[in-house]
Amino acid sequence: MKERPIRTTVIGSYPFPSWLEHASRDLDAFGRDEIAEMQDDAVIAAIHDQVSAGLDVITDGEQTRFDFNLSFYGYMEGISLESASPRRWGPPAHDQRGKHAITGEIRAPRGLGTVEEYERLKRLAPEGPVLKASVPGPFTMSGRLTPNDQYTDRYAITEAFVPIVRKEIEGLVAAGCREITVDEPSMSCYAYKEDTRRFVDIFNRTVEPVVGKCRLSTHLCFGNYKGHAVGYRRLKPMFPDFLDFAVDEMHVEMANREFAEIEMIGTIAERMDVAVGVIDVKSYYIETAEDVADRVRLCLEHAPADRLSVAPDCGLSQTARWAAKKKLRAMVEGADRVRDRR
Ligand SMILES: [Zn+2]
Fold first, then answer.
1. Residues 6+ positions from 310 with CB-CB distance below 8 Å
2. For residues 316 and 87, what is the distance between their CA atoms, to the nearest angstrom?
3. Which residues of the chain have pLDDT under 50?
4. Which H helix or E strand runs over 8?
5. Rounded to whole angstroms, what are the CA distances from 125 to 7, 113, 176?
6. How far, in Å, from the CA of 30 to the mean position of ligand 1?
7. Where would you tag: which of 167, 292, 317, 335 has the fewest CB atoms within 10 A of its CB?
8. What are the pLDDT digits (tens) for 20-78?
9. Cα 316 to ligand 1 centroid, rounded to whole Å
10. pLDDT tens digits along 106-142
11. 275: part of which helix (H) or strand (E)?
12. What DSSP string describes 61-95?
């Protein structure tokens, strides 16, 4: 069970400090110890912002994934670095991201780095908030790789990631992590055109070894790379099949869609806890605490407080840090107002 009604949580990512982005363009200018110190400093900044906002659940803000070699794909064997961007000019969006080529057997003998991330978070975070780790799911991971003769389509690549992600979450549980999100935004983005039963099967086989051993959740959104959506932004194609996901909490994007299909959270809450996106990470309109309180009250018309968590729509990495800070504070204050009936 979660600790309290209307708990306040986040999706994994948080904006990088400007100095980190600047430094990551020329990492060769730094020694190994300096890079390790930089990683700690960035996580300390993300922890600080989340703790001072008053969140019940925090992450490391995915602050150490700032360089290709430090990202998941940098941990992998059997792939070669991202190909040139298919579109190099014009408005920034997901179609400017190249894909990685598969050059051998897809393996991650050293894992994907999330256990080290969790150990760092545990070392640097204060007592109090729940520490959550986020791992992308196999279908989402597969989307950045180009199929070849050995892995002939996206599902074949996905299958190669199932044991890799499974091992990662088992490692997190062994390290003492009590709350894990397996992010599968690609499943929510493409539910409208793919076999949703197949998604459920992939997801549940991935998490099977840790079910009941930690609090498991998933994050379903419609894309936020460079602040853009890529999915058909409706929950309908996912349900009822996604109710069979073996998770304790399901997160859905709502604020940016102006709470369309809000009644669906009642259906989800019959099976599991539901975390609702009440903060629009794409808009620079800064929600007030009262805006948030109104949104929480709307959620309570459909789902009971002890089943409800509130969160931003997605990770905050594509939102400026000054705005992210204000939005998180408003979210916590708004949830407090409803919980305490102020
Ligand atoms: Zn998202």
1. 6, 7, 8, 9, 275, 276, 278, 292, 295, 296, 299, 331, 334, 335
2. 25
3. none
4. strand 7-8
5. 19, 18, 14
6. 32
7. 167
8. 999 999 999 999 999 999 999 999 999 999 999 999 999 999 999 987 777 889 999 99
9. 9
10. 999 999 999 999 999 999 999 999 999 999 999 999 9
11. strand 273-279
12. TTTT--SGGGSGGGG-EEEE--PPPS--SSS--GG
User: Domains in the chain, start-ordered, CATH in brackets?
Assistant: 7-339 (3.20.20.210)
Q: What is the Cα–Cα distance from 74 to 96, expressed in whole angstroms?
A: 19
Q: Find the 266 Cα to ligand 1 centroid distance in Å.
A: 21
Distances (CA, A) of 264 to 77, 119, 144, 222, 242: 41, 36, 30, 16, 12
Rounded distance, CA 324 to CA 283, Å? 10
| Separation of CA 35 from chain center | 24
Distance 321 CA to ligand 1 centre (A): 17
Question: Whose structure tokens read 């789902």?
Answer: 303
Ligand 1 centroid, distance to 233 Cα (angstroms): 12
